[in-house]
Amino acid sequence: MAKINLLEPKVFNMLAAGEVVERPASVVKELVENSIDAGASEVYISIEEGGIRKIQVSDNGIGIEKDDMRSAFLPHATSKLKNITDLDSLATLGFRGEALASIASVSEITLVSKSRGAEVANKIVLHGGQVSEESVASRTDGTTITVENLFFNTPARLKFLKKAVREQRYVHDMVKMLVLANPQVSISLTCEEGTLLNHRSGELVDALYSVYGAKMADNLMPISPLQDREIKVSGYTSKVDYTKPNRTYQTIIVNSRPVEDQTITTAVEKAYAEFLMKRTYPMFVVDIVMPFEDVDSNVHPSKTEVRFRDKHAVFSAVYHAVHDTVVESLKNVKFGFESADTLSDKDLDDIFLNTESKSEEIVKNSGLDAPKYDYYQSKIDTSSLYNLTHKPTVKHEFSLPNAKLNDSTAYEAAFEKDLQNNDAWADESSVQPVVFDGKIVGQIFDTYIVVERDNLVYFIDQHAAHERILYDRLVDKFSVEYVQSLLIPYKLNLTADEAEYIESVLDKLHELGFEIENNGSDFLVNAVPEPVANLSLDKFFGSLLKDLQDEKPLKLTDVLRDKLCQTACKAAIKGGDALSREQIERVLKNYLDENGNLPSQCPHGRPCVVAFTKTDIEKMFKRIV
Q: Angle, to 10 degrees, between the axis of helix 581-591 and the axis of helix 462-477?
């Protein structure tokens, strides 16, 4: 007959350690957070063999008194919490009283500490959670804790660790997050090879330079501080033309605690949605300060997850703070053709080379070396490729029929007809053409149009630029002509959050042409707008529910963005299509929007135009040194 066994403290401590101590990086996190909670202004971390062999953390905090040293290693022993109600106002990083007991149960640990005002330091040594030595020691105020031979008594856990070099990277990444979350604390990390990170106390911007270096930090911009009710959002986020291929460089800080939270990540990426290519991600450090009673940090023993009382308010605050920052950074940027003859050489260098320019004469007279330039594309104002002082009385342009998501053939035919219609542009009595005052050099690789104007040369991706123009016009002309009834109603299988969202936008969905019935426990879709009728409803509503926290007005074109992009892409002139000079001229006319600007990016976020100055090219060929 089965028998229920009561586990011994040693056994359940080792089991519990699996939740708190996953790898050396977890140990480093817990120990450094204890140091910060102890008021340390300096923390020194040293590891050997990626932390598997040895981890040592030393600080100048308040220290631990002799009488508390044994108690510190007991399960659920903490100085930061007395009653459960204290969780509502908890300001410390640690509070569960599990870390030291868990670490001690799976390692050999030595603690040396001197509390402020004490005459001597004290030392305690534990082996697998059992005290093996207590004595007097010597050190200044603060604590040094050394963890050796991690998981020596749990070989099943030990074999799941990675190689030392990989574990060292995990430790390094963890310390980076701790630095970003606590920039006011000096933190250094060393290993057998030397110093991995050395941050001296300062502001968040100082931490960014310590963690990422100048090249990355220079591409971050401060988030416009936003106070939404009692939620304060600040931090730094990357420029729209500086992205990463994954989410590795994204840090979220809530009340000085580095955490992982999908609500905040989604809010930031939504703020960038219209500016980035697919599968590219912004780099950011979002710092959120909010009332402690509105955030629950006691979700998991590792304390890397949080739960918000009102996650929609948090989403809104983060979205608006980041979106305002991105929009503000672009508000003075125009994407057309700059009238280059109005700019001095210094202006051109400042715009295109992103560096302080000196004329050749000044450089020679100063005895300085010629400035070094990085050749990359900066944002460009290209609003005057055409001299718009003589506006046409009739402007021929590529005209679109009413938008049909599943019929790109109509767009291709319309553009081809316009492109080949020489007679349409021959009668100058009826048309006063837009004046193009640059020089079309031609087309290269049957893909890129080259235009020279004054001191600038432009390379235009014919497909990307045309695709953007078609996409914008599709969105402008998008309409729903009729509603399609479904033979068999489509049943929405929703979570509680999703059902709440559908309920909140039900009236708007009805306005868009959906007929959705709430029968109490489920939602049944009886009819859909015509553009949705030929789509997979699973995918459509999956896309719709991705936006359940988005505060923007619900628009069908937003949900159908991918389909609209696909239609525009198929209809646009292709890379590899050879064009005559006359066709290039008409293509350029069709590329300009109603403001005379050329699009900066295609709907997928890929650049449409890049530009170089004459100075750029002369420096490439060493005509200017």
A: 40
